[in-house]
UniProtKB/TrEMBL annotation:
TM ranges: none
GO molecular function, one term: nucleic acid binding
Species in which this protein is naturally found: viral metagenome
Name of the protein this chain belongs to: Putative RNase_H superfamily protein
Domain YprB ribonuclease H-like as annotated: residue spans: 62-224
InterPro entries referenced in this protein's UniProt entry, alphabetically: RNaseH-like_sf (IPR012337), RNaseH_sf (IPR036397), YprB_RNase_H-like_dom (IPR038720)
Gene3D superfamilies recorded: Ribonuclease H-like superfamily/Ribonuclease H (3.30.420.10)
Amino acid sequence: MSSKLKYTDNLPVYMAGLTNIKNANSVQYQWLWENGCEHRHRFSRHFGCFLKKYNITERVGFIDIETSNLKANFGIVLCWCILADDGTLYQDWLTKKDVLSGTEDKRVVSTCIDTMQTFDRVCGHYSTYFDIPFLRTRALIHGLSYPEFGTLLHTDVWRMARSKLCLHSNRQDVVAESLYGKTVKTRISHPHWRQAMMGNEESCMQVLDHCNKDVIDLKRNYDTLLPYCRVTKSSI
């Protein structure tokens, strides 16, 4: 590598889309090492300056999962939804075929992980303590690859609400009701939860709709609280 620092306004095509330095390949990292920012530091050290200079923004996804139990060694993932910041909704759910195959939620967990990895940052509500570790546990149980530390950023909107608001509860629906006067959250009867575990299509659609509504409230709460919060580089 050349030791002389370069400054350029032209970003090579192969650098487009790089939002996390830990995901840089050898060619991309060499370019970051050879080129610098206005502070006369290499982009490999001032990666934030690289993102700012070339107006590169993170792709953010708002995630929610519905499960049959609060603990991943007893429960399975019934469905998941990820709402992209551009409004695109990604989702998957447990089917009768999954149940009959004997693989439980392996396919559903796999598609969730694959979709998560198309984003730079995932946001959830209480996801530090539930969604993220639940998915990680189910992935490890199934022998699936899960994003390692530093490869995917994570924001917990529950933490944002707890630190920036003063409410009687920091539940997602309470935050929405308090800030906007209502929540889109739905309620599901116990029979539908039980039937969804067996892959019943009608019940799975009820649970999936509930999950869809949750990510709508989640994104709205995030967008409202973001101006009052510091965007961190926390990893899942």
